C-alpha cells in the first residue's frame, strides 16, 4: 500500500463515519452513557457507533494498529499491521448531540517502522511519526488535509479542488483572535480572558477543528494550558497545522513529543510563530529553552554579599555560562579581585540579558525590577537582606537555583505591577511601574492630606490621612501590611487601597478588582508620589494620580512557597 492508498483509506473512514453519524443527530438514545472509555471518560452511544464504523472500515481496507478513545489500542485486519491509525470518531460530541455545527471526525496515519510491525513497533513511536491527517467538519462538509512535507489544504463543500492553507500573519496579541479550551479553565486563563489581552476569544468545543481554524488563519491561536490535551483529539489536526506553518508546543514552549499512547496528556499552545512566544510568556516559561546569559546585581554595602557574588562568578565560569555585572558592582570588584581573569563584562544593554541574578534583600529586588522596566527578564532572587520577602532562594540555594535555570527545570511566577500617571494642568506624566506600591504621602510630618478617591469613575470617599497606599498583591506584605492592609496571594488579580493613619475611624483598607482604574485627587495641600520607596513627583492641590494594572509584569524564578515565607514576617 503506497501513500495514495493511505489517503484513500483515511477518506473512506471519514466518509463512513459521517454517513453513519448524521442520522443519529437529534436521536435521544445518542447521548446515553453506555460505558467508560479506555481514556477514562464516559462514552456516549453515538461515540461507540461512530468508532465501530471507523474500525470496521479500517479493517476492510488494511491491517493496522488503531488507537481510539473508547477501545484504547487494537490490532485490526489480517497479517502484521503496517500502519498506525489514531482515530477520533467524533470530536465535539456535545455539539453533535445538540446539532451545533462544529463537530468533526479526525484521523491520522503513519507507517509502523522497524523490525516489529505490531504493537511493539508502535511503542517506540510518537506523534511526530504520523504522516497524514484528515479532519472533516461533519456538519458543514469542509475537509482539512495535511501531509508531511506536502503542505496543508482545505476542500470546502461543493468545491472540486483542494486549496492550500497557511496560518495567519497576525503579530500583536491585541489584534489576535484566540480559541480557548472550555473545560477546567485555570485562573491564568480566566485572567487572560478578563484582561482582554487579545481582540477576541472564541470557544467552539472541538479541539480538532479549532486547530484546523488556526491552520487556515481563521483563528490566530488555540490554547489549552491544562495537562488535558489527548492524543486522539489532536493527532489529525497536528499534522495539518504543522504543515500550514503553525507552531505547536506545550505551555512552556517544549515540543509535545506525545507517545502514541491513549494515556498521553499535554498542555497545548498553537499559533503562528510571531504570537507563539508571547503566549508562552503569558501561560508558561518561555525562557526554559532560551540560551542563558545572566546579569548580576547585588547590594554592595555588605561584605558577605560581595563574597557571594565572587563565588557565583567562579561557578558560572566553571559552567561556561556568560554573565554581565552591574557597572557599580563591577567597579567595586575591580579593587577586590583580579577581574581580568574572568570573562565578565559590564551590563550595558538589557537585550543581552536572559535572566537577572539578584543578591540582596527586598530593596535590591525592587531596584532590579525598576532597572528591568518593561523588559521580560526573570529575576533569580537570593536572600542577603533583613526580611527578604521578595526573595525566593536562600544563599545556600544559589547554585541550585542557577542549575535549575541552566537545565530549564524551573517555574516562572508572574507578578502584577501597576502603572501610575500624574495629571496636572500642564498635561500628563507617566511614572515608572510599581512592583510593590504607589504611595501618596504628606510632605510635612504630622500634617494630613485630603484625598478624593474614585474607582472606575465612581466617587468612593474623601480621605483625610497622613497618606494613602495603593498596593499590588506582591506589595501587600510590605508597607500596606504595616498600615493595616490585608495579605493577598501574589497570584490574585486585585489591588489594595490603604489609608495611612486616617482621621476617620471608618476609613478602612479596600480591596478592588485588578482591572479597576483608581483615581486619587489631591483635594487640599500638597503631597509626594512615591513608587516602591522612590520619590517621583510632587503633587499640588487639584492634581490627580491615575493608577491601573500595568501592561508589563515582573517575572520571578519560583523557589519558596508563599505561605512558608509568611512565617518570616512573624520572626523578623
TrEMBL record:
GO terms for biological process: lysine metabolic process; NAD+ metabolic process; NADP+ biosynthetic process. Mg(2+) 1 binds at residues 69, 88, 91, 233. Its cofactor is a divalent metal cation; Mg(2+). It is found in: Cytoplasm. The keyword Repeat does not apply. It comes from Methanothermococcus okinawensis. Coiled coil: none annotated. Its EC number is 2.7.1.23. It catalyses: NAD(+) + ATP = ADP + NADP(+) + H(+); NADP(+) + H2O = phosphate + NAD(+). Its main location: cytoplasm. It is an enzyme of class 2 (transferase). It holds the Pfam family NAD_kinase. GO terms for cellular component: cytoplasm. GO terms for molecular function: ATP binding; hydrolase activity; metal ion binding; NAD+ kinase activity. This is NAD kinase. Mg(2+) 2 binds at residue 90. NAD(+) binds at residues 362-363, 367, 436-437, 447, 464, 466, 477-482, 534. Homotetramer.
Amino acid at each position: 500500500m503506497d501513500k495514495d492508498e493511505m489517503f484513500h483509506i483515511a477518506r473512506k473512514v471519514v466518509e463512513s463515519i459521517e454517513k453513519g453519524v448524521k442520522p443519529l443527530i437529534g436521536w435521544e438514545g445518542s447521548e446515553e452513557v453506555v460505558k467508560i472509555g479506555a481514556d477514562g471518560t464516559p462514552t456516549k452511544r453515538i461515540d461507540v457507533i461512530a468508532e465501530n464504523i471507523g474500525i470496521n472500515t479500517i479493517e476492510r481496507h488494511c491491517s493496522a494498529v488503531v488507537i481510539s478513545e473508547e477501545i484504547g489500542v487494537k490490532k485490526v485486519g489480517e497479517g502484521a499491521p503496517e500502519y498506525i491509525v489514531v482515530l477520533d470518531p467524533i470530536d465535539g460530541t456535545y455539539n453533535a448531540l445538540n446539532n451545533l455545527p462544529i463537530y468533526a471526525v479526525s484521523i491520522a496515519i503513519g507507517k509502523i517502522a522497524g523490525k516489529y510491525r505490531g504493537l511493539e513497533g508502535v511503542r517506540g513511536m510518537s506523534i511526530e511519526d504520523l504522516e497524514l491527517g484528515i479532519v472533516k467538519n461533519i456538519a458543514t462538509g469542509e475537509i482539512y488535509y495535511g501531509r508531511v512535507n506536502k503542505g496543508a489544504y482545505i476542500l470546502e463543500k461543493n468545491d472540486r479542488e483542494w486549496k492550500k492553507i497557511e496560518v495567519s500573519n497576525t503579530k500583536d496579541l491585541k489584534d489576535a483572535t484566540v480559541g480557548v479550551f472550555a473545560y477546567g479553565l485555570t485562573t491564568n486563563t480566566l485572567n487572560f480572558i478578563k484582561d482582554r489581552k487579545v481582540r477576541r476569544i472564541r470557544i467552539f468545543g472541538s479541539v480538532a477543528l479549532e486547530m484546523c481554524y488556526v491552520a487556515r488563519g481563521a483563528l490566530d491561536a488555540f490554547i489549552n494550558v491544562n495537562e488535558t490535551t489527548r492524543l486522539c483529539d489532536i493527532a489529525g489536526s497536528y499534522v495539518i497545522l504543522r504543515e500550514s506553518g503553525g507552531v505547536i508546543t506545550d505551555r512552556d514552549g517544549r515540543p509535545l513529543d506525545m507517545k502514541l499512547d491513549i494515556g498521553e496528556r499535554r498542555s497545548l499552545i498553537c499559533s503562528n510563530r510571531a504570537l507563539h512566544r508571547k503566549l508562552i510568556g503569558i501561560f508558561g516559561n518561555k525562557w526554559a529553552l532560551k540560551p542563558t546569559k545572566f546579569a548580576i546585581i547585588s547590594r554592595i554595602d555588605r561584605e558577605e554579599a560581595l563574597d557571594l557574588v565572587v563565588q557565583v562568578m567562579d561557578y558560572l565560569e566553571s559552567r561556561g555560562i556568560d554573565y554581565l555585572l552591574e557597572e557599580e558592582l563591577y567597579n567595586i570588584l575591580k579593587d577586590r579581585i583580579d577581574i581580568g581573569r574572568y570573562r565578565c563584562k559590564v551590563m550595558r544593554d538589557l537585550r543581552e540579558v536572559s535572566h537577572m541574578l539578584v543578591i540582596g534583600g527586598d530593596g535590591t529586588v525592587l531596584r532590579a525590577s525598576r532597572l528591568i522596566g518593561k523588559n521580560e527578564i526573570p529575576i533569580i532572587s537570593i536572600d542577603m537582606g533583613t526580611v527578604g520577602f521578595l526573595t525566593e532562594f536562600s544563599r545556600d540555594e544559589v547554585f541550585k537555583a542557577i542549575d535549575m535555570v541552566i537545565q530549564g527545570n524551573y517555574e516562572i511566577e508572574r507578578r502584577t505591577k501597576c502603572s501610575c500617571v500624574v495629571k496636572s494642568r500642564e498635561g500628563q506624566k507617566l511614572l515608572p511601574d510599581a512592583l510593590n506600591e504607589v504611595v501618596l504621602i504628606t510632605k510635612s510630618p504630622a500634617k494630613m492630606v485630603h484625598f478624593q478617591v474614585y474607582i472606575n469613575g465612581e466617587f468612593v470617599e474623601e480621605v483625610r490621612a497622613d497618606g494613602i497606599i495603593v498596593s499590588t498583591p506582591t506589595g501587600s506584605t510590605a508597607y500596606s501590611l504595616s498600615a493595616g492592609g490585608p495579605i493577598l496571594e501574589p497570584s490574585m488579580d486585585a489591588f489594595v487601597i490603604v489609608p495611612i493613619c486616617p482621621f476617620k475611624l471608618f476609613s478602612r483598607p479596600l480591596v478592588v478588582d485588578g482591572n479597576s482604574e483608581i483615581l486619587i485627587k489631591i483635594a487640599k495641600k500638597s503631597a509626594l508620589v512615591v513608587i516602591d520607596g522612590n520619590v517621583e513627583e510632587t503633587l499640588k492641590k487639584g492634581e490627580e494620580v491615575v493608577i491601573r494594572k500595568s501592561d508589563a509584569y515582573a517575572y520571578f524564578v519560583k523557589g519558596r512557597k508563599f505561605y512558608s515565607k509568611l512565617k518570616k514576617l512573624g520572626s523578623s
